[in-house]
Amino acid sequence: MPDTEIQVLEQQLNSFDSNIRQDALAALWQKAQKGYVEIQPENEIANMHCHTFFSYNGYGYSPTAIAWLAKKNGIKLVGIVDFDVLDGVDEFLIATDILEIRASCGIETRIFIPEFETREINSPGEPGISYHMGIGFVSGSIPETSEDILKTMRVRSTNRNLLMVERLNEYLKPIKIDYEDDVLVLTPKGYATERHILAAMINVVEKTAPDKIGFWAEKLNISQEEAIDLYNDKPKFSNLIRTKLMKKGGIGYIQPDAGSFPKIEEFHTLIDEAKAIPCLTWLDGTSKGEQDIEELVEMTIKKGVMAINIIPDRNWNISDPKVKATKLEKLYQIVEIAKSRYLPINMGTEMNSFGQRLVDDFNAQELAPVIQDFLDGAYFIYGHTLLERAIQKGYRSGWAVEQFPSRKERNEFYTKVGKIAPPGKSTLTYLQQIDDKTITADDILIGLQKR
Fold first, then answer.
1. Is-contact 73 40, C-beta < 8 A?
2. Are 122 and 282 in contact (CB under 8 A)?
3. Residues 6+ positions from 187 with CB-CB distance below 8 Å
4. Quick one: average pLDDT of 328-356?
5. Cis peptide before 41 (omega within 30 of 0)
């Protein structure tokens, strides 16, 4: 089978046309089953935090593409997490069913936490503002009672985007970004993020500036030599533009306040009604808010948090030995705190910036003390997702609380389910055919073990 044919099909996985994505996956899977595509043996590795092109992916990956890459590279468990939208959930679950991969789906946004309004948490330079997640969604459709929350999140985001573009255009003259023609064209369903604006800005300069290097040297206030060096390093170049023009202190930056984002309770309402799991996110333990991590964890648990998200690579894969030692110690600390509070860990690489890994280095010596905790968290969220999809007996169900009143026991059950349940349509079909009116947790475990 010619490599070019496989490459074309893999490129089609990222088409904005869902029918093309679906057909490309079917063709690739057929070829893989015939031995024309090398599929790596499944390994005990996971990435449960992959952004897709429905919010922003640094490589342009769709949910279907992420599922395929996971299968092709032997990644045993994989999850998507998109910013402010659930547009990729159904597509991803369908693709992972076909490919027989253990999967989960989530949503991320920024929230306002009044109790920490004077302390920076995990959104640099923005006291009281925190990135926050819901994991374990089983559908892109949510109850009507929550639709306004999701719509309001999107409206807030769009309004911020438009103001940012207006400010950037004033500074970038004579270069001008058109929000519809330059930004929204980069999205499959019309939802744009700050990173889309960054990509659009770079594209417009590339197409229209007579002297691209000179333009960026002037606008970024760097030398011509620095601009040339950075221009040839895409990740560093993009990050510098974002830092200088779009983050705190930059011309396009908009300082958020208490009304810029939903409060934690509002976001949790959306998550709760979808029977998903509220998830605290942790950066690196160095901010004022995260130095008060015990207080933050306890307070958010009272508000409904049941899991925690960690991005390991930025906490150990660091060149400066002193910084690395500090952040690695903080990483071990937060894992111990999570375990002591029975908060399963959702971990991954994000991939919302070019250069981020497809999957973490599970062989890294630095991660050895926490790898099993990461894997247990991945199995946990897959176990919840499977049972909620199949028979509406996920972690948040009344059945689960009745079977396991304590979070510790409940966590252990869903982790066991995740470890023994084969992925794919056949397991869903098996579960859907059982008489679930009187079924117990032991019945489910015994049935799955026999498969």
1. yes
2. yes
3. 53, 54, 196
4. 96
5. no
Work out the number of other CB atoms within 10 angstroms of the CB of residue 250.
17
The residue with tokens 């994989």 is 78
Q: Is pLDDT above 60 for 1?
A: no
Structure tokens given for 16: 């904005």
Instruction: Kindly give the pairing relationship between strand 102-112 and strand 129-135.
Output: antiparallel
Rounded-to-integer distance, Cα 254 and Cα 250, Å: 9
User: For the residues of 64-81, what is the DSSP string, one character each?
Assistant: HHHHHHHHHTTEEEEEEE
Residue 145, exposed/middle/buried by CB under 10 A (0-12, 13-18, 19+)?
exposed
Closest-CA residue to 70 (of 80, 58, 84, 85): 80
The residue with tokens 């009044």 is 114
**C-alpha span between 177 and 187 (Å, rounded):** 15
Condensed to tens digits (0 to 9), the pLDDT of residues 386-423 reads 999 999 999 999 999 999 999 999 999 999 999 999 99
β-pair partners for 109:
132
- Residue 433 DSSP SS3: helix
Identify the three-state secondary structure at position 162.
Answer: helix
